[in-house]
Amino acid sequence: MNDLEQRYRALSRQFHPDYFHNASAAERRLSLERSSYLNDAYRALKQPSSRIEYLLGLEGERTTASVAGGGANVPPGLLEEVFALNEELDEIRELRADGATQDVWKPRLEQARQPIEEKRRAHESQLDELSARWDEAIDAGAEVDARRPILTALRERFLERNYIANLLASIERELTSE
User: Distance between CA 160 and CA 139 in Å, rounded?
Assistant: First the structure.
């Protein structure tokens, strides 16, 4: 069992409302609130992506980027993929509008998804690595200046990850629209 889960269980036993059934109404309410906060925190910290988003928020980093409206907001590391995907989606829409059957355009859409999926997997791996580096820096008591490059890289990968998720969602919408 990892450290997070051990701490969660220990605090759960300490604050669980069942242990306050004979307490005053105010103490029972406080126990419920603490238990609720603890459950929310555990859920946020247990999932890598929500943990990173929470960390970035704590450090004052913006975790959202506008992905609507085109290239001005595209993370630089994704410009080529976005351009290629948008061209392919336009061509597929034209094929569909001209009456092409699903067996003509669907394989192209599936093929267009592959490099985006590969990019998603690479970003997930990078996020895991950066999270581990962050934890090591915190455990070692690293100064803010030493942690800043890790935090910046986490933010960039996280924003790109969100953009990649939107690209994959665009492909899914095309696959499911008839």
Answer: 27
State the Cα–Cα distance between residues 151 and 6, nearest whole angstrom: 26
- pTM tops 0.85: no
Which residues touch 157 (CB under 8 Å, ≥6 apart)? 123, 126, 127, 130
What the block records as the tokens of 6 is: 């051990």
Residue 108: which residues within 8 A CB-CB, separation 6 or more?
88, 91, 92, 95
d(CA 160, CA 93) in angstroms, rounded, equals: 26
Strand, helix or coil at 164?
helix
95 token code pair: 């094929």
- 10-residue mean pLDDT profile of the chain (178 residues): values are 82 83 86 85 81 83 53 70 87 90 91 91 92 92 92 90 89 84
What is the C-alpha separation between 49 and 161, in angstroms, rounded?
10
Contact 67, 162 (CB under 8 A): yes
